[in-house]
C-alpha cells in the first residue's frame, strides 16, 4: 500500500507512475473542493467528476453564460459553450483508477453573443441551488424561507427561479445535510449499539412489525438513570408531543426536576400516536429502566391512555394530574374566571381546612364545577389531600418546557432527532456540573433562595416550647405546632415540600439547630453534583463505528404512515381554555406585532 499524499491509498503499481507524473502539478494546483471559487485553469485536480461539474455550473451562473456537455463518460468530460461560435471549452480526464479528474485543456475566452448571455441560465437547477444554499441550513431551526431563496438567487446571480424550484432546492439542501429519512431509520440500530457502548448503562430498544417497518423506539441515557437513582426526587412527569418530519409520529418524554428545580430528562420514546398500546409500551420500558421505586409519583395530563398505562405498569405508584391542564379545562367548560382562581388556590393549599374553605366557596358559586373536580379525584390534583410525595411539583410544565426546547429538533429525521436529544443532555450535564461545582452554599441556589425567603418571614414569629423538639409558633394570632424530630408542622408546608417552613425555621433558631439539616437530601449541592457526575459521550462519526454484522444488517424501514392533505402542521393545537397570547414588540413596545414586522416610528 502506497500513500500518494493525495488523500487516497493506492496499491496498484500501474497507478503509481501516473500519480508520480502529476505530483509536481498537484503541488502547484491543489485538489479543488467547494463551489465558492469560480477560478478555473489547466492542471487543476478535482476529487470527483461531480465536483468538477458543480464548479462548472456555478461558474456559468456567476459569469452568466451557458454550456453544453459534449461528452461525458467514466473517464472523460468534455464541455463547450452553448453558443457554437464561442471557443470556450473544458476537457478533463480521470486519473488512473482513482475518482479524481484533472483539467487537461481549457480555453477561457468567451465570445458569446449578448442575446445568449441575457437568457435565464439553464444550469440553475434545484440541485445546484440547493448546493449553493447548503451552508445556510447548517444547524437547527434556521429561518431561511422560500421567498428569501428566490430573492437571494435573483440578487446574487440575476436569475429568477420559481417558488417550486426554491422548495425543491431547500429540500435537497436539507437532505444533503441530514440524510434521507429512510436511511435514518435503517441506521438507527447501529447508532443505538454505538451509543450503548460509549455510554455504559444506556438502555435503547427498537421495535419493528413483521414487515420490518418501524413501530417504537426507546432511549434512556445511563448518566440520567444513575443520577435519578441517587439524587433526584422520585416524581416523574410524562407527556407526548407530535413530530413534524416526513413520517410524523409522537415523541414521548419522561422528565423530573433536579435539586435546583431544573428539568432533568429521564427517558424518550417515539411511536405512532398517543394511544393505549404506545403509552403502555413506553411506560413499560421506563419501568424496566428505573426498576421499582419507593414513593414513585407520576404526573400527567388527563389523557385516558396515560391513566390506564400508569395503573397497569406502575400499580404501586401514585398518579396525579397536572393542575394547569385541569384549570384550562375548567376555563373551557364553565367560562367563569372566579372558578379558575378558586381552583388554583384550592389545589395549592397546604392545610386541609384551608382547602375545605376555598372549595366550599367554589361549590357555592358553581356546583357543576365542584362536581367535575370531585369526579377527577381530589387526591389527584390537590396538595392537601395528596396521598403521595409530590413535593412542589404540581404540573407537567417540565415536559412542556422540554417540548419548547425541542421545537426545531422535531423537524429532523429520526436519527438526527435522537442525536439532538443526546447532544442536548450532554450540554446540560456539562453546564450543570460546572454550575454545581461553583455553588458555595450547602443547598442548591434555588433551595437556598426558598429557605432564605422563609427565614425572613420567621423573624417576628414567637416560639413557645413544648419539649426539646416540639414547640408552638405564633404569628398574628395564627399558631402552628412544629415537631423537629418528625420534620412536620401543622401548616403542612414542611411535610409536603420537605423544606422547613417559616414556623420550623423559627423553632430551629429557638433551639439553636441548623435548619439546613432538616432539608431533604435532594436539595443539597452534593446531591445536585451527584445528579450530573457522569458524562455523556457522543457517538462520533458513522464511518468510524465498529458494529457487529448482525446489528448492521438489521433492517428498519420507515413506519406505515399516510401524509394528510394540505400544508403540514407546525404548531400544536392549543389546549382547551388556552387563549392566544398577544405578542409585544421589543422595538416600539406596542402589542399585537413583533420586532420583525414592526412598522411604527420610534418616538
UniProtKB/TrEMBL annotation:
Compositionally biased, Basic residues: which spans? 560-572
Name all CCHC-type domain ranges.
584-600
Q: Which SMART domains match?
A: ZnF_PMZ
Q: Where is the SWIM-type domain?
A: 480-512
What the entry lists under Pfam families is as follows: DBD_Tnp_Mut, MULE, SWIM
- Disordered, as annotated region: 560-585
User: Which keywords fit this entry according to its UniProt record?
Assistant: Metal-binding, Zinc, Zinc-finger
The record ties this protein, via InterPro entries, to: MULE_transposase_dom (IPR018289), Transposase_MuDR (IPR004332), Znf_CCHC (IPR001878), Znf_PMZ (IPR006564), Znf_SWIM (IPR007527)
- Coiled coil regions in record: none
PANTHER family in the record: POLYPROTEIN, PUTATIVE-RELATED, PROTEIN FAR1-RELATED SEQUENCE 5-LIKE
Please identify the protein, giving its name as recorded: SWIM-type domain-containing protein
Q: Which organism is it from?
A: Vitis vinifera
Q: Supply the source organism's classification.
A: Eukaryota, Viridiplantae, Streptophyta, Embryophyta, Tracheophyta
Amino acid at each position: 500500500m502506497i500513500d500518494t499524499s493525495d488523500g487516497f491509498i493506492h496499491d496498484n503499481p500501474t497507478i503509481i507512475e501516473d500519480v508520480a507524473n502529476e505530483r509536481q502539478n498537484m503541488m502547484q494546483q491543489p485538489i479543488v473542493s467547494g463551489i465558492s471559487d469560480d477560478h478555473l485553469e489547466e492542471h487543476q485536480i478535482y476529487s470527483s467528476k461531480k465536483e468538477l461539474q458543480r464548479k462548472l455550473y456555478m461558474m456559468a451562473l456567476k459569469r452568466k453564460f451557458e454550456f453544453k456537455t459534449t461528452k461525458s463518460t467514466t473517464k472523460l468530460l468534455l464541455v463547450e459553450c452553448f453558443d457554437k461560435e464561442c471557443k470556450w471549452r473544458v476537457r478533463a480526464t480521470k486519473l488512473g483508477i482513482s475518482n479524481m479528474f484533472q483539467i487537461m485543456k481549457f480555453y477561457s475566452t468567451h465570445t458569446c453573443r449578448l442575446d445568449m448571455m441575457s437568457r435565464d441560465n439553464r444550469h440553475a437547477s434545484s440541485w445546484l441551488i440547493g448546493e449553493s444554499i447548503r451552508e445556510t441550513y447548517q444547524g437547527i431551526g434556521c429561518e431561511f424561507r422560500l421567498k428569501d431563496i428566490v430573492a437571494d438567487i435573483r440578487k446574487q446571480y440575476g436569475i429568477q427561479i420559481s417558488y417550486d424550484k426554491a422548495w425543491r432546492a431547500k429540500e435537497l439542501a436539507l437532505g444533503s445535510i441530514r440524510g434521507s429519512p429512510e436511511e435514518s431509520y435503517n441506521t438507527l440500530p447501529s447508532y443505538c449499539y454505538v451509543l450503548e457502548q460509549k455510554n455504559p448503562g444506556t438502555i435503547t430498544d427498537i421495535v419493528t412489525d413483521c414487515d420490518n417497518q418501524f413501530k417504537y423506539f426507546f432511549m434512556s441515557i445511563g448518566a440520567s438513570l444513575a443520577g435519578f437513582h441517587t439524587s433526584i426526587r422520585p416524581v416523574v412527569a410524562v407527556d407526548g408531543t407530535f413530530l413534524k418530519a416526513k413520517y410524523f409520529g409522537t415523541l414521548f418524554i419522561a422528565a423530573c426536576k433536579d435539586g435546583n428545580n431544573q428539568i432533568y430528562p429521564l427517558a424518550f420514546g417515539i411511536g405512532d400516536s398517543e394511544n393505549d398500546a404506545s403509552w403502555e409500551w413506553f411506560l413499560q420500558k421506563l419501568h424496566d429502566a428505573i426498576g421499582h421505586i419507593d414513593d414513585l409519583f407520576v404526573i400527567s395530563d388527563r389523557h385516558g391512555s396515560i391513566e390506564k398505562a400508569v395503573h397497569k405498569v406502575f400499580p404501586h405508584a401514585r398518579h396525579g394530574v397536572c393542575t394547569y391542564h385541569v384549570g384550562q379545562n375548567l376555563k373551557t367548560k364553565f367560562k367563569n374566571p372566579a372558578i379558575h382562581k378558586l381552583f388554583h388556590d384550592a389545589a395549592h393549599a397546604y392545610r386541609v381546612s384551608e382547602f375545605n374553605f376555598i372549595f366550599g366557596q367554589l361549590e357555592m358559586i358553581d356546583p357543576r364545577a365542584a362536581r367535575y373536580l370531585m369526579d377527577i379525584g381530589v387526591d389527584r390534583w390537590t396538595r392537601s389531600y395528596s396521598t403521595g410525595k409530590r413535593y412542589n411539583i404540581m404540573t407537567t410544565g417540565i415536559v412542556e418546557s422540554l417540548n419548547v426546547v425541542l421545537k426545531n429538533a422535531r423537524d429532523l429525521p429520526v436519527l438526527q432527532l435522537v442525536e439532538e436529544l443526546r447532544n442536548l443532555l450532554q450540554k446540560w450535564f456539562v453546564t450543570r456540573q460546572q454550575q454545581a461545582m461553583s455553588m458555595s452554599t450547602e443547598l442548591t441556589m434555588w433551595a437556598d433562595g426558598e429557605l432564605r425567603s422563609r427565614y425572613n418571614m420567621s423573624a417576628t414569629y414567637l416560639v413557645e416550647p413544648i419539649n426539646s423538639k416540639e414547640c408552638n409558633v405564633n404569628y398574628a394570632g395564627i399558631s402552628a405546632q412544629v415537631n423537629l424530630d418528625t420534620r412536620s408542622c401543622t401548616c403542612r408546608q414542611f411535610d409536603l415540600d420537605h423544606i422547613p417552613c417559616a414556623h420550623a425555621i423559627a423553632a430551629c433558631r429557638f433551639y439553636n439547630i441548623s435548619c439546613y439539616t432538616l432539608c431533604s437530601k435532594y436539595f443539597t449541592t452534593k446531591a445536585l453534583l451527584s445528579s450530573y457526575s457522569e458524562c455523556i459521550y457522543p457517538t462520533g462519526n458513522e464511518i468510524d463505528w465498529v458494529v457487529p454484522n448482525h446489528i448492521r444488517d438489521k433492517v428498519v424501514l420507515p413506519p406505515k404512515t399516510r401524509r394528510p392533505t394540505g400544508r403540514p402542521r407546525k404548531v400544536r393545537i392549543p389546549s382547551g381554555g388556552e387563549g392566544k397570547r398577544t405578542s409585544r414588540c421589543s422595538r416600539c413596545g406596542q402589542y399585537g406585532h413583533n420586532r420583525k414586522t414592526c412598522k411604527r416610528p420610534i418616538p
